[in-house]
């Protein structure tokens, strides 16, 4: 009887532990605070062999040659990007433009705070613009390039982050965040990757 | 005697380069995070930016110019806050850039191992006992929001 009485308690503890673990996983993926962004971007172990011009060219060529036409489960253009320290950022833009929406100003300020943090101050970053799979692939590539540049420009002109520390590239729908759901809005999220 | 010392200090501060004297000025004693300033701008002026600054992204000079040109169309709250927000951003930038100058002696004396890497140098300064840093350097680190 005593054992039976303990069972619900044990079950509750187990459920709480699972909840706490899953919550920590979700928190690890968010950029709710400056500390979240710093934690996700620091810790680059070795300099990656990344060439932004080549990446841009590969994206354009993949679209032109009609490789991976079906967006569902389309492989990322660069798997290396996902292995580097990175953070996904839900920056909002006016539709079909590179104009950053006012409700995303706070997030831009938070990113600037993180880039001025001593843990990241000596690092350089690649800002990657992305889109969901809707409309033309080449248009999405061009729009994402302009959006990546808009993020970089906001950090450079408004917060005086050195332009030497920031590169920008648009990968359109060639680096889907959720390849299982290519039309999902989450695929519009920009990505910042530590490259130096 | 005290008055003479204060006067000499005042003259000394006034004769410093603008970035350094800005960071030391009592009016700029506290700088706020970029996020706080950006949030103020977005909350007070978001609707006005949407209505009057079509096509202007988060680019301080252009956004400030647009809001200034549309003074009559924006709310009093926005008029007051956009100036505060951009000034707060500029103050923090000045305060951060002043750290390098005001901690020059400490950087060479205590933080030579950081080899000029900005992040390592700031971490070294923050880890050093405050008593080991000069008054100006301590002030600069505080005003820049590092502690």
Descriptive notes:
The complex is a heterodimer of chains A (196) and B (147). Chain A has 196 residues and is of the alpha+beta class. Chain A folds into 2 domains: 1-30; 33-194, OmpA-like domain (60s Ribosomal Protein L30, Chain: A), CATH 3.30.1330.60. Chain A has 6 helices and 4 strands. Chain A has helices at residues 2-28, 34-41, 52-64, 79-83, 105-115, 137-158, and strands at 86-89, 125-129, 166-170, 190-194. Chain A has a 4-stranded mixed sheet. In chain A, helix 2 (34-41) packs across helix 5. The longest helix of chain A has 27 residues, at 2-28. The termini of chain A are far apart. Chain B is an all-alpha fold and 147 residues long. Chain B has one domain. Chain B has helices at residues 2-14, 18-24, 34-52, 60-69, 76-102, 104-109, 118-127, 135-143. In chain B, helix 2 (18-24) crosses helix 5 (76-102), helix 4 (60-69) packs antiparallel against helix 5 (76-102) and helix 5 runs antiparallel to helix 8. Chain B is elongated. Classes of the chains: A alpha+beta (196), B mainly alpha (147). The interface between A and B is medium-sized, with 30 and 31 residues.
* Uncertain parts of chain B: 4-24
Structural class, from helix and strand content of chain A? alpha+beta
The shape of chain A, in one word, is globular
CATH H-level superfamily of the largest domain in chain A: OmpA-like domain
| Spatial sequence of strands, sheet with the most strands of chain A | 1-4-2-3
Beta content of chain B comes to under 5%
Proportion in helices of chain A: 40-55%
Say what the CATH topology of the largest domain in chain A is.
Answer: 60s Ribosomal Protein L30, Chain: A
Q: What Rg of chain A is obtained from the alpha carbons, in whole angstroms?
A: 20 Å
Mean pLDDT over all positions of chain A: 87
CATH class of the largest domain in chain A: Alpha Beta
Unreliable stretches of chain A (pLDDT < 50, length at least 5) are: 22-28
Number of DSSP strand runs of chain B: 0
Largest interface: A-B, 30 and 31 residues
The chain-level structural class of chain B is mainly alpha
- Estimate what percentage of residues of chain A fall within beta strands: 5-15%
Percent range for helical residues of chain B? 55-70%
Number of domains of chain B: 1
- Give the N-to-C terminal Cα separation of chain B: 34 Å
């Amino acid at each position: 009887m005593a054992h039976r009485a303990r069972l619900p308690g044990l079950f509750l503890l187990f459920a709480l532990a699972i909840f706490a673990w899953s919550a920590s996983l979700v928190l690890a993926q968010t950029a709710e605070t400056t500390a979240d962004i710093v934690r996700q971007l620091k810790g680059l172990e070795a300099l990656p062999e990344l060439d932004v011009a080549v990446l841009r060219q590969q994206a354009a060529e993949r679209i032109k040659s009609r490789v991976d036409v079906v967006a569902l489960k389309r492989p990322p253009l660069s798997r290396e990007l996902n292995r580097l320290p990175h953070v996904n950022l839900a920056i909002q833009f006016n539709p079909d433009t590179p104009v950053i929406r006012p409700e995303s100003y706070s997030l831009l300020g938070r990113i600037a705070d993180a880039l001025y943090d001593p843990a990241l101050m000596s690092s350089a970053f690649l800002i990657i613009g992305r889109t969901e799979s809707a409309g033309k692939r080449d248009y999405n590539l061009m729009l994402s390039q302009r959006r990546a540049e808009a993020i970089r420009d906001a950090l450079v002109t408004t917060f005086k982050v050195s332009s030497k520390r920031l590169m920008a590239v648009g990968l359109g729908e060639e680096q889907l965040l959720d390849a299982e759901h290519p039309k999902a809005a989450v695929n519009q999220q920009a990505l910042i990757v530590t490259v130096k | 005697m005290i008055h003479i010392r204060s006067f000499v200090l005042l003259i000394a501060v006034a004769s410093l380069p603008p970035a350094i004297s800005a960071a030391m000025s009592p009016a700029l004693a506290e700088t706020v995070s970029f996020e706080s300033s950006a949030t103020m701008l977005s909350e007070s002026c978001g609707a006005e930016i949407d209505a009057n600054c079509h096509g202007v992204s988060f680019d301080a000079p252009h956004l400030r110019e647009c809001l200034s040109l549309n003074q009559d169309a924006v709310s009093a709250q926005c008029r007051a806050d956009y100036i505060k927000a951009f000034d707060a951003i500029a103050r923090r930038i000045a305060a951060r850039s002043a750290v390098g100058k005001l901690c020059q002696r400490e950087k060479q004396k205590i933080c030579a191992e950081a080899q000029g890497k900005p992040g390592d140098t700031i971490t070294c300064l923050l880890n050093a006992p405050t008593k080991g840093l000069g008054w100006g350097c301590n002030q600069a680190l505080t005003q820049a929001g590092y502690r």
